[in-house]
Amino acid sequence: MALDYDLVVLGGGTGGYVAAIRASQLGLKTAIVESKKLGGTCLHKGCIPSKALLRSAEVFSLAKRSEEFGILHSNLQLAFEKVQLRKNSIVTQLYNGVQSLIKKGKIDVYHGFGRLLGPSIFSPLPGTISVEMESGNEMLVPKNVIIATGSSPRTLPGLEIDGKAILTSDEALEMENLPESILIVGGGVIGIEWASMLSDFGVQVTILENADRIIPNEDAEISKELEKVLMAKGINIVTQAKVLPQTYEKRPGEINIKVEIAGEEKNYSAEKMLISVGRKANIDEIGLQNTEIEVKNGFISVNSNMQTKESHIYAIGDVIGGYQLAHVASHEGIHAVEHIAGTIPEPLAYQTVPRCIYSHPEVASVGFTEQEAKEQGYQLKVGKFPFMANGKALVFGETTGFVKVIADKKSNDILGVHMIGPNVTDLISEAGLARVLDATPWEVGTMIHPHPSLSETIGEAALAVDGIAIHI
């Protein structure tokens, strides 16, 4: 028997379940189809578990410095099995919370693999969803569909992921023991977070990055500062490094691989290798061929309202490319649902989306980098303020890094804000709001920030744009 819905969400990750909750709030009869667990990659394989591990690594690193704070200790040890238990308990608590929210919204959940069907006896339009479950198949006939199937780690041809010696972030999260050494292929966001975490846990880390600098999509000054700090922690960073997958050799307790650098081949070895070269959309076998939906460069094409070429079928999150971030997927899901419900949602302003790297030190940004702003033709004025000159940072014992504000000389609008230092993934929200409101540096700088607080660095950097910062 076919079951009718106003909306079926294909995928119950962050974007999918948030979309379903919003649809329920708007009175739409809604269902989610999820082949694994509600919460998706972010909750079970990404954002939450990795940040739990990063926090443990940060605490361990801080504990080793406790004498700086007048606290003496002896026989400091890392119990990695307890680190993993803490991570798992956090995931479980949040998973239970998501299930409660779905139950509260009276949203039906089908645990199985969903595929889009073409026009059939169930509907003259493509979009009927066949759900393969252990108990058999179920047919769902929605008026609208949101594809929110997420993404999975990319791999390198020739490097087989075995889950033991060669890993992606999925397998790395489940490690029972830490390796003595690791090669991380890729110096983007995920690679940097793992490098920072494992180094703080005491693992010898080497990053092999193909571009000419790590985090190449971030501001060049931030990248340079992060590289300096990570290298000071003992991380070996190799840029313009082309890994040659066909040369790898596995031996007991060791992986060897050749890397081409400036035309020369060099050998690198470690106990394990982590492949961190981006993520690919989960669009295989979900029935796209039964529709007119277009796929470009491996991602589903959508318009500004998240509609595919089939106007009643929407797509959000990692499957459409762009910013592959949980908070972006959530807002894309809300936007799609509100459009389905007949409201006129404001267009998503991607230039106001905060981007965060939860390494130690943290990195956060919003808006244009300095290079991007110049390429857009803006005449710039830039202000910076170091955490070294901030009282709260000194109290924290975390004085590395700075805040950088980029503004347009003509309009005086803030174009971008970039930070590296303590707790900047929390501080960036103020900068994001400034972008939303088209604030000027003067407006941010003259806002009264509490003292002592890390947020004072934002106000000082904003004032520095016009040369009127007080404490530098």
What's the short story on this structure?
This protein is an alpha/beta fold and 472 residues long.
Query: What is the third-level CATH name, the topology of the largest domain?
Result: FAD/NAD(P)-binding domain
Report helical residue fraction. Answer: 25-40%
CATH top level assignment of the largest domain? Alpha Beta
Please tell me the overall pLDDT: 96
Please identify, by name, the CATH architecture of the largest domain. 3-Layer(bba) Sandwich
Q: List how many beta strands DSSP finds.
A: 24
Low-confidence stretches: none
- What is the CATH superfamily classification of the largest domain? FAD/NAD(P)-binding domain
How far apart are the first and last residues' alpha carbons, in Å?
A: 71 Å
**Helix/strand structural class:** alpha/beta
Number of helices: 13
**Biggest sheet features:** 7 strands, mixed
Strand content: 25-35%
Rg over C-alpha atoms, rounded to the nearest angstrom? 24 Å
Tally of structural domains: 3
- What is the 3D form? globular
